[in-house]
Amino acid sequence: MAAPPSRPAPEAPEAGLASLADVYGRGCYARFLRAQRRIGMAPFALVRFRQPAGAFPDPPTADYTLAINERGRGRMVFDIGTGRHSLPFRVGDLVLKPPGVATHFAMDGPHQKSFLSLPAPAMAELMRSAGIAAGAAADFGPLHQGSFRSPSIARLLDLIWLEAAEDNPHGRLFSEGAALALVATLLRLRRPEAPSPPEIRPLAPPRLRAVLDWIEAHLAESFGLTELAAVACLSPHHFSRAFKAAMGETPRAHVTARRIERAKEYLEDRDLPLAEIAQLCGFADQSHFTALFGRRMGMTPGAWRRARGS
Predict the structure, then answer these.
(1) Which CATH architecture has domain 20-190?
(2) Which candidate, 251, 245, 179, places its Cα nearest to that of 212?
(3) What's in the keyword line of the UniProt record (predicted)?
């Protein structure tokens, strides 16, 4: 996608400044500065600036800068070291610049942003205390790939700005704590999300019908998951999950339910011994039959038979 229309751009800021806060505080972008605040004793700086339409390259600086879009309309093109991105300017979008990277921003209309300058040594110390290996300390992974959104970070930035006023010494303590909470949130966001579990597809109707028919034909026999999975031409693990997705119950629960229903049919014959019914329905023995029947029906097979005969 084409970049915003070309406008006269300010001269590229001089290199050698320690942070982007210095670039806007005393570099050639100082004329765009609206306000700048420090967070107590913490080495973090807050900057708010407004710029007209145009391109604004930034030199590499040694700090992380977390910027948030505050006002503006139109399209924005930016490059924070991973290639150029073009997208609508949306209030609330965040960008995290890594240290040591020259960046480029261009807007086709006036805009306002604020950013938090986070010195790399302070960030590295925080990451080490969080148990992150030193080799990964400079990398926030996907957060450096483009813009992202985080309502919690946006809210923290707003609170830090309000509480970091020079005439609010008690607010500085809050701001330092909030800045640490913000860094902790970034650390949490940098970790890849756990992959979603793969979708479990129900057993296809033809295979399900074949399995159900096989169960009905073999209820008197002893069989397990392996035999059922073979009928469906699936692995036992895959079959068990697909069967439950289709039937709403595990294969074992279904087989037990069908054996109980078959037993109830045999119990109609009052002369058929319970031990024989247990054998005909695939239960291990009469005791096993009685236990499972009672658990499911709330009474023993004998009591059920008597209640049906009354």
Answers:
(1) Sandwich (2.60)
(2) 251
(3) Activator, DNA-binding, Transcription, Transcription regulation
Closest CA to 119 of 33, 61, 35, 175: 61
Using CA atoms, how far apart are residues 100 and 19, in angstroms rounded to an integer? 10
3-class secondary-structure state, position 272:
coil
If we measure between CA atoms, which residue out of 101, 106, 140 comes closest to residue 123?
Answer: 140
Q: What is the Cα–Cα distance from 282 to 300, expressed in whole angstroms?
A: 17
* CATH architecture under which domain 205-309 falls: Orthogonal Bundle (1.10)
Cβ count near 56 (within 10 Å) = 20
Residue 155 in tokens = 């809210």
> What is the reported pTM?
0.56
3-state helix, strand, coil in the chain (%, to 5): 45, 20, 35
Q: Residue 121: what residue type?
A: P
Q: What is the mean pLDDT of each run of 10 residues along the chain (310 residues)?
A: 41 61 86 85 82 90 90 88 84 89 88 89 69 58 83 89 67 68 81 59 93 95 88 86 91 92 92 92 90 90 84
User: Using CA atoms, how far apart are residues 97 and 145, in angstroms rounded to an integer?
Assistant: 9
Instruction: List every span in the chain annotated with CATH 2.60.120.280.
Output: 20-190
Residue-wise burial string across 18-45, b where 16 or more C-beta atoms lie within 10 A, e elsewhere:
ebbbbbbbebebeebbeebbbbbebbbb
Spatial contact of 29 and 19, defined as CB atoms under 8 Å apart: no
